[in-house]
Specification:
Elements: H1 36-51, H2 55-71
Helix pairs in contact: 1-2
Length: about 110
C-alpha cells in the first residue's frame, strides 16, 4: 500500500509535510485529475475503447503520440490570453496591440 500523502510504502503516521503524487511524484494529490499519469491513463483507456485495442497496444500508441507531440512542442508559439476590458463610450474599440504606429512628421530641410 502507498501513502496518499507522500507516495511512500506506508499508509499511517506520515510525517511528510505537503503532497507528493505516488504516480508521477509531482506536488499534488494522487487523485488529482491534472496529474500527467492520470491524463496518460485516461488517453490509453479511451484508445482501448475507440479502437478496440489491448491495454499494451493502446499504451504504446499513447506513448508514441505523446512523443511526437512533445518533440515539436518547442515550435509552437503560444500567446497569453487577454481578458476583455470594459470601455467607456469615448474610447476606441481597437486593442492596444492593434493600434497603428504613430507617424513622425517629416521635417523639410531649410
Amino acid at each position: 500500500m502507498r501513502c496518499g500523502n507522500c507516495g511512500g510504502s506506508h499508509n499511517d503516521n506520515c510525517t511528510f509535510i505537503g503532497l507528493k503524487c505516488a504516480n508521477c511524484r509531482g506536488p499534488h494529490n494522487p487523485k488529482d485529475k491534472e496529474c500527467s499519469y492520470y491524463i496518460k491513463e485516461k488517453e490509453t483507456i479511451k484508445l482501448m475503447d475507440e479502437q478496440h485495442l489491448s491495454y499494451h497496444q493502446a499504451k504504446q500508441q499513447t506513448l508514441t503520440n505523446r512523443s511526437k507531440t512533445n518533440k515539436n512542442q518547442h515550435l509552437i508559439k503560444t500567446e497569453p490570453t487577454q481578458q476583455p476590458t470594459q470601455q467607456s463610450q469615448g474610447e476606441s474599440k481597437q486593442t492596444p496591440e492593434r493600434k497603428p504606429n504613430p507617424t513622425i512628421p517629416k521635417i523639410k530641410p531649410t
